[in-house]
Amino acid sequence: MIKENILRKEILNEELSRPSWIKQNHRLSNKIWLDKNECADPQLNKIVLDSVLSVTVESVLSYPDLDVLYDKISKFSQVQAENILITAGSDGAIRACFESIIAPGDKVVLTRPTFAMYDIYSKIYGAEVIWIDYELSEKGPVLTLDKFISVIKEVEPKMICLPNPDSPTGTIFSPDDLEQIVRTAGEVNALMLIDEAYHPIYQWSAVSLIKKYNHLVVVRSFSKAWGAAGLRVGYAIANNDLITLIHKQRPMYEIGSVSAQAIEKLLDYEEDMLQSVARVNTGKEYFQNEMKKLGFYTYTSYGNFFHIKFGKYAKDIHNALEGKVYYRKDFNVPCLDGYSRFSSTTKEIFEPIVSCIVGVVNKKEKS
Fold first, then answer.
1. Assigned CATH topology for domain 56-268
2. What are phi and psi of 117, to 5 degrees?
3. Is 131 helix (H, G, I), strand (E, B) or coil?
4. Does this model's pTM top 0.90?
5. Residue 23's pLDDT is what?
């Protein structure tokens, strides 16, 4: 039995828990997986696989040299390589910020609901979380700029984390509103972290603001639009002074050689990635329009996912789709009460799902 006093009290926090690492829900190719906002575009999936298969034996046997990848990411992001930190997924970039900034007792402002790891890292590093809740409205989850600004001014936190688009809500702040949030964060001397995991599915980016605000970090991922969730590669972008300080806590090697070389190759297919984004957005629009025809409510989402309210048909639709497609059936948060979430995919993959739902509705209406 390990003595409790060996561990930090933050790790002993009973509210800090993680899912089992020995029981996993394996992704099987004979199922349609639309539950985790992964890339479900067969054409881009093939390009990702080809990029992995292009990896050399040397990269498997050697520790990574990442200068080529830094250069390619800098060209894609239109910043200098000196402004970038490569990490193990955007998750790693978020952790790097917490590790560099947060001490026990510091305050962190988070939206709710949001990406689960923000709360986890807050607990790991002993931060006090100040939640800003989305509210349920007829147009989906809502969070006003005035509410966000007032909390920042009142609390004066050490760090503010805001995905744009947020997840699972899929909501955004406009560029002007987002800059106002960033500016207010600077006024109270807080680090502002903007999570762009869904870039360029949502095309606007805050990266240009790093030249204007020295307290801003933008984090991104290759897991969504680029379709390489299994390679676990992300990165942080900030002005040179800030990113140099965050680099101090990086591990010996940011990521492995295999992932690095595969992403290097994948970055040669930017146009294909953008075409994939267009395909899944077309599929998303098709599904939502078909659901509207059936009288189901759906609101605009800016990530590669969307929400549907099946209402009185929910139980029958869930039963009909069971085992055919995996998606998020419901949420235990007020602002998403009654909604189900589907990751976006192509129109061709959505068509049998739509047919199944139409069949349920027609059967219920006749009975």
1. Aspartate Aminotransferase; domain 2 (3.40.640)
2. -70, -20
3. strand
4. yes
5. 84
